[in-house]
Design brief:
Elements (H helix, E strand, L loop, with lengths): L1 H36 L17 E4 L3 E9 L5 E13 L7 E11 L11 E3 L7 E5 L1 E11 L9 E15 L6 E11 L1 H5 L2
Antiparallel strand pairs: 1-2, 2-3, 3-4, 4-5, 4-6, 7-8, 8-9
Length: about 190
Amino acid sequence: YAGYTFFAQQHQVLTAQTEVNRNALRAIDLLKADIRMAGYLDYSDVNPMPSNQPITISNGNDLIVVYDDFDDQGVLYRALIRYYLNSYTPASGIQRQRLMREWRKCNNPSALCALASSAPLYGQTGGEPILDWVTAFSVEAANLKSSGTFSGQPQTVKATLTIQSPQKIDGSSKVVSKTFNVITRAKNVSLVP
């Protein structure tokens, strides 16, 4: 019985680790794709992108990236993508944090795009959760560009995510948790002279 209990707990730990990894990797792929696009200006867009526009980091855990994109009908627009943590309390009453992704369209692309001057796409006013059970999320600017169009903008963004599994291990108080460190190059900021 003792051997069975040990192996059952080990199986639960492995299952929880796999779930954490799978969920985190999906969110990290999306985050990296948005950071890589930061500062992208389509050749057909007549609106300049302000030099301080591509990447904004507030309070070390609120990330905004801006780039040109095309909607479902092929119409060019300026997108603002925001990542931040939000508290959530479901019916079970266990409060936790979610990583949110807010996708917005800039109302006036010829001016600085901000939350106040943009509208949510698809009616999502607060964004949508892309990762649950996040215990920590931090973002840091690195390798600031010293000259050129995007002078002072980070060419690299470092993000740290700590995620825990919602499942407890039977017969134990152990919680499966993992920290992910992500470093992504903002290629448009880096390549634009």
